[in-house]
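Q: What residues go here?
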């Protein structure tokens, strides 16, 4: 399954707003189109928007009319501002655009702009390939936490569609499935955007993993009945003290998991770790349009004119998290010390 890929002169995306009904491709040939696709959730999920933004930066360089280094750097800085503003919570977006800009700055002034642009495209491909490797490593580390027949609850979609094909929270499940452990996944539908029912359920079905779809409000009921062995979610940002931001509803799951003594795991690549922010309160939470709450597939679900809130993410404090599964291994508390150690190892 491809989420994001490059064709000459275009960033291509599977349109996740149309899944699972239709499998349509969106081709973006300008930075503005890439930013609009990220903002409009054509592509979503922290690692996937990071890779898409990296290709967006390559596109900016290839489309640039600049004839020298300074002009190219101006165009790239502008592209970075446009792309970073598309969605504020997932750090992978600015992580990727910063990496691209840093690379462009490292070229000497005499280097032809065309050649710099070609090398930036190579860097975007490298970011893409790394994501695939990183997710598989998360799968290997995380699968060791699952027993035969483990019942795992997940929220939102932190699968192949949220990355370049393998996923973060779904990676341990996929790997355990390949190892013959027969995991069973409880999939939260994830109101209001339904990433669980539309995307995770579709992916797991294709992978042949056993699953049961539930509404978000059923999660506590299944935990209370002893039908959940662990929870694995992804993250949009992990900060220095171990607090995480993830899809709205994650915090409630973590609190419920604590009440029922259920391990609560976060699976995330180190590109999602932001050591510049101290605690979760510093994370900017994206506020999306209330229409995404009051409407579904063009149908109104609420009285006309009613005000609806739509924070797209929430913060789970580190003391509710059992461990963070990264490509470099499983990080356990104390998270501040352990995150610093792991990030310094790079
Ligand atoms: O609003 P979305 O669909 O982009 O939110 C996605 C999530 O919250 C994911 O759990 C997170 O980005 C991790 S994806 C591997």
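A:
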């Amino acid at each position: 399954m491809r989420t994001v890929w490059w064709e000459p002169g275009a960033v291509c995306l599977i349109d996740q707003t149309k899944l699972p009904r239709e499998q349509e491709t969106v081709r973006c040939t300008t930075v503005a189109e890439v930013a609009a696709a990220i903002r409009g959730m054509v592509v979503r999920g922290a690692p996937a928007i990071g890779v898409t933004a990296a290709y967006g930066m390559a596109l900016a360089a290839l489309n640039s009319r600049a004839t020298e280094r300074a002009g190219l750097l101006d165009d790239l800085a502008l592209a970075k501002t446009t792309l970073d503003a598309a969605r504020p919570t997932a750090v992978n977006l600015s992580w990727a655009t910063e990496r691209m800009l840093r690379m462009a700055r490292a070229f000497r002034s005499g280097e032809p702009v065309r050649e710099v642009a070609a090398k930036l495209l190579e860097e975007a491909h490298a970011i893409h390939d790394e994501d695939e490797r990183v997710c598989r490593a998360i799968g290997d580390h995380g699968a060791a936490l699952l027993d035969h027949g483990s019942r795992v609850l997940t929220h939102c979609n932190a699968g192949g569609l949220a990355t370049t094909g393998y996923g973060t929270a779904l990676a341990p499940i996929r790997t355990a499935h390949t190892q013959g452990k027969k995991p069973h996944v409880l999939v939260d539908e994830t109101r209001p955007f339904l990433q669980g029912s539309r995307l995770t359920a579709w992916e797991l079905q294709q992978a042949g993993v056993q699953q049961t779809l539930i509404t978000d409000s059923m999660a506590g009921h299944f935990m209370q009945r002893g039908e959940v062995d662990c929870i694995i979610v992804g993250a949009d940002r992990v900060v220095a003290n171990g607090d995480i931001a993830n899809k709205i509803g994650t915090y409630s799951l973590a609190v419920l998991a604590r009440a029922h003594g259920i391990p609560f795991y976060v699976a995330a690549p180190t590109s999602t770790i932001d050591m510049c922010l101290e605690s979760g309160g510093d994370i900017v939470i994206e506020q999306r349009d209330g229409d995404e709450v009051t409407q579904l597939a063009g149908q109104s679900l609420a009285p006309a004119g009613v005000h609806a809130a739509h924070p797209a993410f929430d913060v789970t404090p580190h003391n509710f998290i059992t461990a963070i599964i990264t490509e470099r291994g499983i990080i356990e508390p104390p998270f501040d010390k352990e995150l610093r150690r792991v990030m310094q190892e790079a």
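A: Context that may help when evaluating the design: The chain has two domains: 4-135, 143-344. The longest strand covers residues 10-14.
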